[in-house]
Design brief:
Length: 545
């Protein structure tokens, strides 16, 4: 007689992955996008969107002004550790629900049936806002770098000219995303090499060629308040300035949901996507710290660097001279261009998934090009929105800071909604989790991530320049407020009848899953577990498409 299967053997059956297309079908969708990416490309997409050289190079002036080297260096370490909690919880959730919808889909699946549609709708719009803003900030930052590079040879930059460069870079990113998915795969691998070995080489070269070096005490202990006269350290406190200064690090380590949005194009996505999230954040934290410290240790005249329009270029000039600085900055520009390209890739997949569930006009944007098997229409929607968000730069001195705040707040709010739902409703989440999970650590990690995101959401809505007027106002809370009002009004004015949440399929109603849950506990515990299974089973009754 064959031995009776125990809980471990049944769990092994559950862990045995379906074919990816079958898994997607279990979630309620059919395979439409081309699935050919591996864990390397999954990691590369997030690693490229995070792009430490993009965030650090384009936001370096913000860090020098708000806190200085001490806040930039120590803040990077603190933000990296805190963000790993968010990334770890996200990895657990994407393993359970590997779909292009990302946070929007996760929120809909994890929330109780009564609140599922609204949770997905609200999360979708915050992710939509953050996705558009992060692309705008990446490409606009690169436009300023190109203007500075050209300025070395006589180019006179104006806000209108920089906006024109911004538009050209966006069109290039749109075209690269419209050619073929295989081209993106090749660019992805090139981007991994450039953002790792290339950035490391630039950091080493700066350290070697710098005429003098600052002491560790200066790099880790110098505080500077350049927020105004008087600065916020006088009007409020030095802690206020330090908190606003961590935006450099937090904005940089953003966009790691790209691995999730590309899950429908990734092989073995239940394992590859969470690995892509985790490895990209860990690698970015390490490479970013090295690149940041190489710049800070090589900084010569602080005041002269601060007064330059592009402080990183000033550091390169001090280290390499004009020709070497142009080569180094040109390399950074190429890295940032790849970052912008993959940000559009991530945007387009999220917007396609949102349209697929009627969050934005389904008729226009729920479309996959037959030749490329890519959502070309949402590629160009992402390009258009990133251009619109850069228009305030024509009249605002702090437009870039505001857009980076909007990107950071929008994305992290969308990240934390499904994480918080999973953290507070662990009984339900245990019945849905995928091959990557945290076990008993799931709830505490999720709650720490939730508390941290709530904290930075408040911090990044604070004004960063003094005095506060129409030109220096931080427009991030205005943008977030508009989105909140839009979500509530549109929901009650008709979207609740149109948007029913993401498809949920039969995954939670799996007979194997029920058997596993029933076998995992002793007979004394089964009565409680039946409730969990019943709750999980009810998901499939909400919407099946």
């Amino acid at each position: 007689m064959a031995p009776h299967p125990d809980a471990a053997s049944i769990e092994a059956q559950v862990a045995h992955k379906h074919d990816d297309a079958d898994r997607l079908h279990d979630l309620g969708y059919e395979q439409e996008l081309q699935r050919g990416w591996t864990v390397l490309e999954s990691f590369g997409s997030s690693f490229s969107v995070i792009s430490v050289c993009t965030g650090i190079t384009t936001s370096f002036l913000l860090g020098m002004t708000n806190g200085g080297p001490g806040v930039m260096s120590v803040g990077w370490i603190c933000v990296s550790v805190a963000t790993m909690f968010v990334a770890t919880s996200m990895a657990e959730v994407v393993s359970a629900v590997p779909s292009a919808g990302g946070p929007m889909h996760w929120a809909g699946v994890l929330a109780r049936p009564r609140h599922s549609a609204f949770a997905a709708y609200a999360t979708g719009w915050f992710n939509f806002l953050g996705q558009a803003a992060v692309t705008a900030s990446i490409v606009f930052g690169n436009s300023n770098l190109i203007a500075a590079l050209a300025g070395m040879y006589g180019f006179e930059a104006t806000p209108a000219k920089i906006l024109g460069i911004h538009a050209g870079l966006l069109v290039l990113a749109g075209l690269l995303n419209s050619v073929s998915v295989s081209l993106l795969g090749h660019l992805n691998r090139l981007s991994i090499l450039m953002h790792s070995a290339g950035v490391f080489a630039v950091g080493v070269a700066v350290l070697v060629k710098a005429p003098t070096h600052r002491s560790a005490r200066e790099v880790f202990g110098t505080f500077y308040d350049g927020s105004g006269d008087p600065g916020w350290s006088v009007r409020a406190s030095p802690a206020y300035v330090a908190l606003t200064g961590i935006l450099l690090a937090q904005f940089t380590i953003t966009g790691f949901d790209a691995s999730a949005h590309l899950a429908e194009e990734t092989k073995d996505s239940g394992r590859a996507a969470p690995l892509g999230v985790l490895i990209s954040v860990g690698a970015s934290a390490c490479f970013g710290l090295f690149y940041l410290l190489s710049l800070l240790f090589s900084l010569q005249d602080y005041q002269a660097t601060l007064e330059s329009s592009q402080p990183v270029l000033h550091i390169f000039l001090d280290a390499f001279g004009k020709t070497g600085a142009a080569i180094a900055l040109g390399f950074i520009v190429l890295c940032v261009a790849l970052c912008g390209t993959f940000s559009v890739t991530s945007n387009s997949r999220m917007m396609y998934a949102f349209a697929r569930d009627s969050g934005i006009p389904k008729r226009w944007f729920d479309h996959v090009d037959k030749r490329t098997q890519a959502p070309i229409r949402t590629v160009w929607l992402a390009v258009f929105l990133a251009f619109v968000l850069a228009l305030p730069s024509l009249g605002s001195a702090v437009a870039f800071t505001a857009v980076t705040s909007i990107a950071t707040i929008g994305l992290y709010i969308s990240y934390v909604i499904p994480i918080a739902i999973a953290g507070f409703d662990q009984q339900r989440f245990r019945t849905l989790r995928g091959p990557f999970h945290l076990g008993a650590a799931s709830r505490p990690v999720a709650l720490i991530a939730t508390a941290y995101v709530a904290f930075i959401t408040v911090v990044f809505c604070l004004p960063t320049a003094n005095p506060v007027d129409i030109n220096t106002l931080n427009y991030a809370p205005v943008a977030v407020g508009i989105v909140l009002v839009w979500i509530v009004l549109s929901w009650f004015l008709g979207m609740r009848k149109v948007f029913h949440g993401p498809a949920q399929g039969s995954l939670a109603d799996s007979g194997i899953m029920k058997q596993t849950m029933a076998s995992r506990f002793s007979s004394d515990d089964k009565s409680d577990e039946v409730k969990d299974v019943a709750a999980a089973g009810s998901i499939a009754q909400v919407v099946t498409r």
